[in-house]
Amino acid sequence: MISNKHKILDAILDQGMLPLFYQDSEKGSVEILRTLYKAGVRVFEYTNRGKSALPNFRKLKEVRDAEMPDLYLGIGTIKTPADAHAFIEAGTDFIVAPIVNPAVAEIANKIGMLWIPGCMTPTEISIAQEHKAMLIKIFPANILGPEFISSIKDLFAGQLFMPTGGVEINSDNLKNWFKSGVCAVGMGSKLISKEVMSKGLYDELLDNTKRALDLIQQSK
């Protein structure tokens, strides 16, 4: 049997994109999740970036269970064991982090959960590998660029990388990333902008998400 960890990893690789956002509004968060799902998203990361993250996540899980049983719902910006435990209890499917915290890795590994740490240097990548990271987030990708991946990928043969930050819904940008050797891209504010959230531009988000998913399939 394929473990959940492998199923979720496969879902990220198939989709080629991990959309992510945080919004204070519970209602807005639910509407964005529904819009992403309608556009074809089947694996998604909510980020732990505000006081409402945990209650909102619980609500998203409720909506997911009722309306979108085939969606994997993960939590991002998990930096401490306390945060990891809180969101595991709330039912997260996987954990994403901006840093490598071995204590968080241990919690995820103990229950067989996918843990995606953020790395900026070869040393951090090496530490992440020691703690069994199957997929590593390159962050902040807008600072490092595709050239960074091209330069280090041979040092870490077989390692899966996903840049987050500065990835755009643009054919050339996406092609450059995939050509450099990434297996998926994280998409935050370039997809789910502050304007989309504050004005509730869900039709625009629907169109942009469909376009991003199409461009990614063409760029792989």
Automatic annotation (TrEMBL):
Q: Which Pfam families match?
A: Aldolase
| UniProt KW keywords | Carbohydrate metabolism, Lyase
Keyword check for S-adenosyl-L-methionine? no
Instruction: Tell me the InterPro entries matching this sequence.
Output: Aldlse_KDPG_KHG (IPR000887), Aldolase_TIM (IPR013785)
Q: Which CDD domains match?
A: KDPG_aldolase
**Pathway linked to the protein:** Carbohydrate acid metabolism
Q: Which family does it belong to?
A: Belongs to the KHG/KDPG aldolase family.
The record describes its quaternary structure and partners as: Homotrimer.
PANTHER family, per database record:
2-DEHYDRO-3-DEOXY-6-PHOSPHOGALACTONATE ALDOLASE-RELATED, 2-KETO-3-DEOXY-6-PHOSPHOGLUCONATE ALDOLASE
Q: What is this protein called?
A: Bifunctional 4-hydroxy-2-oxoglutarate aldolase/2-dehydro-3-deoxy-phosphogluconate aldolase
Q: Which species does the entry assign this protein to?
A: Pedobacter rhodius
